Each structure stands twice: as structure tokens, then as C-alpha cells.
Amino acid sequence: MDKEIKKLFETELSSLLKKLNIPARTRSLKKSIKFESLSTENKAELAFSYLGSQKAYYIELTGYSEEFSYYIQKIVPPYKSNMVDGFSAHFYMTTLQEKSHSHAQQLSKIYLPHSDHVLDLCINQISDALNGFYIPYLMAFVDFNPSLIHYIVQRPDFYSYPIPMIAYVLEFNGLKWSDLNLPIGKKIIRDREFDEALLQI
Q: Please, which domain of life does this record's source organism belong to (predicted)?
């Protein structure tokens, strides 16, 4: 029974992913979408992964920027990336990391529905969450738009080099840190002298 429900769920999920309106070059697969920016060389992926022991799915968002890699090679931060060794992504988050949600449309685990009615409700909820939170969140990285800075300040642990990425996004958009009204706490500063010099604060 679970196999049939899982197959039906993934069929509906695949159909949903193909119908999403995303302002980027995309390729929809069975349980994921690959993104390529229209304005940068950034690439990203939104994927649904299955936890067999819990009969539930979770969402993973991954982003990589060749431009930002060159920038990091140029400035040489005096600290390591937040990403685990050998993982080249510059942005990574999973809904399993979120114990409390700052946005009403955030999800954690998506349990297999037990009826057609619940399946419809579940797919609608996923659609709302993707359009209302996860795709805009991912597109902020893909396009290096200014809203990315707010996301980095909120969750610096999702980004390889939080302060250098903020500095790069500011430069990319012709902005200065002083143009923004954002607090910057100890959680995001890794090396005060280097980071404050980078942001010119």
C-alpha cells in the first residue's frame, strides 16, 4: 500500500514541479528542479528526499556560484567555509534543520498522505510553500539580489562564507552596507578585522 501511495505522490509532485513558474532556466526531474540564473552564472537545485523509516519527505536547497568562488580565491578569508569539507556548495539548507519556522509557509517533513483527499491537500500545501517561500529564497541566491543579504543575516550557517557573500552581493548590486538598515551580530562575524574591512564598517 505504501509503495502505491509513494508512487502516486511522486507522480503528483513531478507534475507540480513541471508547472511551477520560475524566473530562471529550469529543468524539472521526478523529485527535483535544477535552476540556472538568467543574470548570473549561478546554479541551484531544489530536491525532495525520502526518509523511508519515517515515510516522509524533506526538501533540500543547494546553490553554487562560480563567480563567488573566484571572489573567495581573490580575497582569501582567514577562516574555513561553513560547508563540510569537500562540499563545494555556497548555499545549503534542508527543512530538517528548521526546528522553528520564521515563515508561515515553511515546511519540515512531508508525510505520505493516506488518502486521495489528503494527497490533494498535501500537494496544494507544497505548492504554496514552494511559491511563497522556498523558490524566492533560492532565487535570491541564484540572482544575487539584495534580499539575499537579509537571508544571510538571518541564517548565516546556510552559507559558505556569510560576510564575504554579503560584500559580494553589495558590490554586485552597486550598494554599500551603510545603505541597509540591518543589525549585524556576533553570530555572523568570523574575524572582526577582516569582516568589517570587507563591509567597510
A: Bacteria
Instruction: Tell whether pTM > 0.85.
Output: yes
User: Which domain range does residue 77 map to?
Assistant: 2-161
In a domain, 55, yes or no: yes
Q: How many domains does the chain have?
A: 1
Residue 199 lies in a domain: no
Length of the chain as a residue count? 201
Q: Which residue has the cell 524566473?
A: 23
Is 65 in a helix, a strand, or coil? coil
Cβ(24)–Cβ(36) below 8 Å: yes
Give residue 143's pLDDT band: very low, low, confident or very high (50, 70, 90).
Answer: very high
Interatomic CA distance for residues 149 and 158, integer angstroms: 12
In a domain, 168, yes or no: no
